[in-house]
Amino acid sequence: MSRKIENATSLYMEGIRDGNVREAVTTYTGDRYTQHSTGVRDGVEGFVEFFEPFVARNPLRDIRIVRTLEDGRHLFVHAYQSLNDGEAEWVTLDFFDTDSDDRIIEHWDVIAPYAAETPSGHTSVDGPTEIRDLEQTDGNKALVRAMITDVLMEGGDPHNVGRYISADHYVQHNREVADGLEQFRPLVLAADRSLVYDKIVLLVGQGNFVATLCRARWEGAPYAQADLFRIEDGLIVEHWDAAEPIGPEEEWVNSGKF
Description:
Blueprint: H1 3-17, H2 21-28, E1 29-35, H3 43-57, E2 61-71, E3 74-83, E4 88-98, E5 104-113, H4 137-152, E6 171-172, H5 181-189, E7 195-206, E8 209-218, E9 221-232, E10 235-245
Parallel strand pairs: 1-5, 6-10
Antiparallel strand pairs: 2-3, 3-4, 4-5, 7-8, 8-9, 9-10
C-alpha cells in the first residue's frame, strides 16, 4: 500500500472509525484541505466541527475499506459504513487529491444507502477487489470515458452501449437494476430516461478498475453520480455506484459538490 493510500484510509479509519478526529485530520492532510461534501467546511477546523459531533452521535462505528485505487495524484476509496449496530448503513465512493508529500488536500464524495441485496442477489460492495492488468490502465480509462460520453450523456448514441459493456457477463450492484446488459439497455434507450450525465469531473483508474465522479441530472434535478467499473478483455463486466442529490447552494458551507 502506497503512502497516499495509507493517508486516505487512515483519515477514514483513525479519524472517523476510531474517533481520533483532530489528530487524524492534522496528520494526514496538507497545507490546505478543500472539502466538497457540502455540509463540511474546508480545513482542519471544518473536519473537526463536523466529525466530533458525528462520533458522539454514533458511538458504534463499523467502517470497512473495500477497494482503493491510485492514479497519479488522485485516489479513490470504496467504503462501507454501519452506524450503531446497523441502525444506518451507507456505501461511500470517495475521491482524493494529494500534494507532493502525499498528504490529502482535497476530497469529494458521494454517499448512498447500502443495499444488502440487489435484484440479482449481490450487495452494494461485494465482488472482486484484486487490481490486475496494470498495463491496460490507460485503455480501460479511455473505454469508460468513451462509454459515459457516448451512452450516458446527451448528444451521444445510447444504442452503442454494447460496444462498451459485455453482453455475456455484466454484474450490477445498483440497488434497483438486475444483472445483464439486456436489463440495462432499456434504461439508457428510454426517450424519457431519468438519469442524464452532464460532465465527467474526475476519472481515476488502476488496472482493471476505473472510478468516475460525474455531474448529472435525475429527472432534471442536479445530482452527484459516482461509478466504479471493472473491465475484462476490453469490456465493462461489473458496476458499483452511488448517487446523491445536490442541495440548494444557500445550504452549502463550502464551494460545492464539485
